[in-house]
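chain below, 954 aa
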Amino acid sequence: MTIFKRILIPICLLILLLSLSLGILSLIISGRLVQIDIEDDLSNQAELAATLVSSTIHSRLDILQELANRLPIRTMDRGAQRESWQNDIKRLGAEDFALVYKDGTAAYILDGRTRDMSGSEHIKKGLRGEQVLSEVILDEADPSAGPFIEYVVPVKVNNAVEGLLLARTSAVIFSGIIKKIKIRNNGYAYLINRAGQIVAHRQYSLVNNLFSPIKAAEIDPSIRPLAKMIETARRQRAGQAEYRYEDKDIFCVFTPVPDYSLTLIVAVEKEVIMREVTGLRNHIYVVVLVYMAAGFLIALLIARSISRPINRTMSILKDISEGEGNFNRRLDIQSRDEIGKMAHYFDLTLEKIKLLRDSAEAASLAKSKFLAHMSHEIRTPMNAIIGMSELAERSYGKPDGREYITAIKQAGKELLYIINSILDFSKIESGNLELHPAPYELASLLDDALNIIQIRLADNPIKLITEIDHKLPAIMTGDVTRVRQILLNLLSNAVKFTRKGFVKLGLSGELEGDTVKLRFTVADSGIGIRSEDIPKLCGEFVRIQEKGARNTEGTGLGLAITRSLCREMGGELSVESEFGKGSVFTATIVQGYSPNFKPLGAITGKTRSRTESAVTRFTAPTARILIVDDVASNLKVAEGLLAPYKLQIDTCMSGAEAVRLVKENLYDIIFMDHMMPEMDGMDATAAIRKMEKSYFREVPIIALTANAVLGMRELFLTKGFSDYLSKPIETIKLNEIIERWLPKEKRAKGERLPETSAAPQTLWFDIEGVDMKQGLAMSGGSAKNYREVLTIFCRDAGKRLETLQKNPDGENLAFFASQMHALTSALGSIGAANLSAQARRLEDAGNRGDSALMREEIDGFRTKLAALIRSIRSAVPPEHAERAEDSSIDRELLLKLKNALEKVRIREIDAILGKFSAFSPDAEEGKLLSSVEDYVLASEFEEAAALLKKFLQE
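prediction:
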């Protein structure tokens, strides 16, 4: 569950619970409040109606009393003033009016009739001097007249009652009073007397008959609820009640009429009350829903305000953890609460991580550039050393010559071993060492190792002893290169620190299922190791500085790499040693094997190593190969190594030329150098793969590179290359590439490389500041080629020197840097290492914009370069070149050169230009050749061909 939901859900549940609680409480309270409000309203209406009834009665009594007070009853004649009382009767609203004398006789004024009322209780009370209001009376003689009420007041003379005034009023006046009272929606009021009879009601029939629910309930059971309420109201002075009448639930409030035996009842249907309650509840529902919606919105905003920075933080951390994070991203939250502070510190942490990462990447990039440069710079001459020694070994017939060349070759291999150790350690250190298991012959592995060690022991009084379990499986499964590396590291270490005595190799194994645990034991009688130094042995770049070991060479990486390799193969490296008596190193590794195996058999240690095999299994005279490399010596080495196959070989020195040649010719294999100016090997390969025909997508393209830094192999394979061949080129690996990728239909029967002899190259001159041996090696070992290189260098460097006369500044730093770059490689190619290093410093200064350093050193550099050019021209004059009897230039040779330039055949161009050195051309021809050489040096072959074509036509 996300943090957003973890925050939102509890808050929403809390809001829901509070809303429901509030809603329920509001419904309960609201219902009660509405009921109380209605009860209060009805009570007020009832009291108001009762007060009106009471005041109406009092007003009539007061009017009647006023008449009584001014009535001359002693002198009046019965009926004499009848007409004069008409107005007063109207004021009373009386339906009848009478004078009652002391004897109880009533004389009715309106109709003139008389009546004896001496037996009436309210007449008796009146004669005693009281004001009396009679009960509601129904005239038995005339029931249709309706109920009425009689008002009686005494007429006094000198405080003595002389008679009474009696006024009769219909009870309908009460109905008129209560009808004027508005009692909510559909509410009404009515009056009952002490007997429980309805005196006033909106339904006239109930009043006319003085309807008594109490008596009616004895006949009609449906009226019992009303009768029960009437009974309650009759007994109580005020109160509330509910009853059912005419299938309706009624709620009523009753209250007595002040001073009179009447009770006023206000009634309303409960449905009306419920409608009001329901309306209020609906409003409450709306309010609660609005409150809940607002609460949910607030909860959403709260959850989002909390979860958003957390989610953004998680997103940034996820990108970083997956290796593609952008450390420039920030939370940028400006709030002053804890979240804002957290975001602030998180952004600061990211900034620090970014700085650390940039620093680490810069360090890693510098390391990678150093390794790439070191690998390229060391492996390039190594390619020439090992390749040329391989070719020389094949061509020299004299035993001494072969021995010397073998020594050169072995020294080159040892140097290559040191380089590979450094690169292996780099892989192990980064955790990217990969094992490539495959079946291999254990006997061949042991023969290779023993042959190499026997060569190293040739001049030493050391005996090589082997104790090998011949019952071990002959075929193992594992990474044979790494197993050989472990074995050679241990044996080389033993030889290195042993001056006399023995070096013994022991091999045993334990079979476990489909694996075997091999145990290599290397013992020696060397100088041994102190017990306190044993834990330091497998450290990085650590060498024990014991007496007798200080003059030994090594990187201090061998045992560290060996231990790591053993652990990668499921084993371990251990050591036992006694100082001054020798050491025993034991390496265990786990390898696979087939259950149906053949035993190993005897190991002689005298078999020729397979990696040194010069046997060519087949030839392919119809196959066509393209070799692309910007270094001429590399092209010559590659051609020589491929010579036994009798292939048709084309060469070129740039990626652009390679693309053009591939368009024009069909090649069976393309060997493509990696680092070349302008279009490099990767770009050229990409351009070839994008061409339309399937041939261009399928032709094998083999990467040639001196860059053996971690990850380069995978990079080449993902960039369209078919395979990978590291420089210096080893014969066995080159043979494997040819066997793997050359079409079988173009292979013929193989043969062993013939051996020929050739005279060694010598130099007849010496140049100060130039390592002649290095220059000769860089020129392929040919003195003739070296002289030509020096001549071309003088011409090119002289031109560049002219362009460097103006001091560098901000505007021309890039130009100076490019000139220094060209001179760096040119000076290195002739062996002027010190001046080449200074040119490189100036190049780096120009690239980083350090004009101060360039101005400081440029004068000295120009002086040294000019002196070097003069020294070369003095040491290598034209007369030292071999001359032919015929000094004129052969025009047929010029035509061949033109054709070679048009077809960009580098090897042929180089050979023809070399032949021109035997001629003494005139000024015009010399200028022509100089221009052609300049164009060729700049790889402008079309311009050189056009120049020759124009010269030949003239």
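The two ends are 89 Å apart (CA to CA). The longest helix spans residues 3-69.
thats it, cya
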